[in-house]
Amino acid sequence: MTRLQESLWVEEAATKSTLSGSSERYTIPSRVNLYRIPWLRAMLESRWPQFLARAVTLIGFVFTLAAALFGSRVGNHNFAIIMVWIAWWTTLKLGFIPFGGRSWCSICPIPLPGDWLQQGGILDKGSHKNGFNLRWPKSLRGSWLQSGGFLLIGLFSAVTLTDPQVTGWVLLALFALAVGMSLVFEHRAFCSYICPIGGFSGMYAKAAPMEVRVVDKEICANHRDKSCYHACPWGLYPLAMKDSSACGLCMECLRACPKDNLALNLRPYGSDLGGHISSSRLDETFLALTMLGSALAFSAVFVGPWGWLKLSAFEIGSQPWVAYATGFLALNLLFLPALFSLCVWSWKKISQNRLPLKRLVASHAQGLLPLGLMSWIAFTISFALPKLTLVLGVLNDPFGWGWHILNATNTSRSLDVSGFSPLLQVILLMIGIFWSTRVTMKLSKSDGKHNFPSNMPVLVFYLVYSIGMLWLLIG
Amino acid sequence: MIDQNLHSQNLRRWWHWAILATLVFVVLFVPIPAGAAAPTERTFRIEASRFQYSPAILEVNPGDMVTIELVATDVVHGLSIDGYDLETMADPGKTASITFTADRQGSFHFHCTTTCGNIHPFMTGKLEVGRNTLLWRAIALVGLAMFAGAWKGRK
Q1: Same-domain check for residues A305 and A163
Q2: B141 vs A413: CB contact, 8 Å cut-off?
Q3: What structural domains and CATH numbers belong to chain B?
Q4: Contacts with B118 from chain A: Cβ below 8 Å
Q5: Is B109 helix (H, G, I), strand (E, B) or coil?
Q6: Which of A182, A403, B79, B85 is most buried as measured by Cβ atoms within 10 A of its Cβ?
Q7: CA distance A229 to A139
Q8: What would the pLDDT profile of A101-130 be if each residue is shown by its tens digit?
Q9: pTM of the model
């Protein structure tokens, strides 16, 4: 598609939106437009606060790389391992995603230098853009590569999460890839199609209570310049956005709109879920199932008491590791997709739906998101919270060289969270299955078939998965 | 007439929630038999090496007097049990032991307390004291949550 055709596509989306939508003001009672709050508006309008936050994360990233590559090889004595896989990973899953969707992407340091090079400026866009500015190949669009990236992380997780040098090289590779891709491809190609964390955050952002949306569709459709579209580093046209999965909440569209027609909304949880039955894609289903499978596998490896499994996952290249890798891939690529497809097929038969199975599997994946998000949070409570005691230790001695910056005593002991963690995990999984069930009921309602028995096969999938997680976490 | 319909609808909705609340209450508080034998003395010899405990799962009855003999076969390993505030550490080739009364029912993780290598933070085992009633109650609660979601979403 050429640039001219693309502009026509934008025009077309605008026309379609005004035809299908209403001409009245796009106000939804359940939304609160945070952009109307004066102090927040002032913070968002200026690029400085965001720039400062990104500068801090970039400095943190460089320091993390230095610690990973030159610090102690013992994981729990190294700043990189503890800050990346315990502190940041926990904050992402317990803070950024459930409250801000893809908000981490707005301050992520990895694509930052690439952005500067691509736009030819640091705070504002320069007059000259660097790089080839090519379009990302159509055949590679979607989240297939992100799912693949996540599976790769899973295959090597026991080493990546515990060996500082491996973590350092992985981060460096991601950084180089992000910078390189920003010079070859237009927009945030790395973040949109490659970054596994982007895929993870983007998918669960659909369930999150934050969105950027157009206020009045008609004003937007009639605006000839489409300044929001041209300003978006992600290449998104806000009027055409169906959900929040691709939006990195960078706020450039809000800054660029001369009509003050964009809103940063606080919305009810799960607002993007349960839409029309034909609105999802198969790559999203695969990503959702990969996330469910990975949560199960990581719970077994890192939280479970099976030392042989930990060793199998750790000894890359050995026979036990081959067996672990085969099991991990079989779970994610065969078992869960087959089981879920079977459940949706049963749903199709019972509800006598005539849509193709592929489309139904794709749309039913929306129901997997709440349970997946809650399962990841529940896993994190067992995985990371007991290790938070190690954060003070690596702040005291980031490189493991025997420093005492904070004069604190280093500890190797885990925090005892047994008093509250099992109860919290049960509550989280209850919320997950309740929410997923509601999404499934909503989906089938949009198709005119909302009786309970027809949904049973899909609900049984949720139940079996939840029982599996419960057994691994509190069993 | 409309008011009457609305009233009966509200009443029905209220009854559904009341039934659900009762079921949750029953699941939470109905006594589950511990299925335990009379308290006795138990001794476990646990070998700790290369990020794993062997055996990694210890099953005891509530009230048992438990002795754990920890043998480190490669480097220094430790053992602390969540919920019991107990800790011991064994040097390579040496045995360290702890004795305690298993007076808290449930499933508790135990961890290595001394950095023993890269997988150290995930070197865990499990102490099961009696029947894990929390797991069974949790399964029932998750099932109820699913039915509640289906009921709430049916309209």
Answers
A1: no
A2: no
A3: 2-33+135-152 (no CATH), 41-130 (2.60.40.420)
A4: 73-75, 159, 162-163, 314
A5: strand
A6: A182
A7: 23
A8: 999 999 999 999 999 999 888 887 776 678
A9: 0.93
> Would A258 be classed as within a structural domain?
no
Pick the last residue of a domain from A189, A205, A221. A205
Please report the ipTM that was assigned to this predicted complex: 0.92
Bridge partners of residue A295, in order along the sequence:
none
Look at residue A215 and tell me if it is in a domain. no
A53 shares its domain with A198: yes
Question: What domain range includes position A156?
Answer: 3-205
In a domain, A219, yes or no: no
Smallest Cα distance from B40 to chain A, Å? 24
Q: For chain A, how many structural domains are there in total? A: 2
Residue of A nearest to B113 (CA): A413
pLDDT digits (tens, 9 = 90+) for A382-430: 998 888 889 999 999 999 999 999 988 777 778 888 889 999 999 999 9
A422 touches chain B (CB under 8 A): yes
Interchain contact, B149 vs A429, CB within 8 Å? no
User: Which residue, among A101, A60, A310, A337, has the nearest Cα to A197 in the 3D structure?
Assistant: A101
Among residues A142, A171, A205, which one ends one of the domains?
A205
Q: How many CA atoms lie within 13 A of A127 on its CB side?
A: 0
Q: Which of A303, A455, A475 sits opposite B150 (nearest CB)?
A: A455
Chain A, 69-88: which have a CB under 8 Å from a chain B CB?
A: 73-77
Contact B111 A413 (CB under 8 A): yes
Can you read off the two tokens belonging to residue A65?
Answer: 């790389």
In-domain check, residue A361: yes
Give me the residue label for tokens 């026991």: A158
Of B56, B106, B138, the CB nearest to A306: B56
Q: Got the DSSP string for A40-89?
A: HHHHHHSSHHHHHHHHHHHHHHHHHHHHHHHS-SSGGG-HHHIIIIIIIH
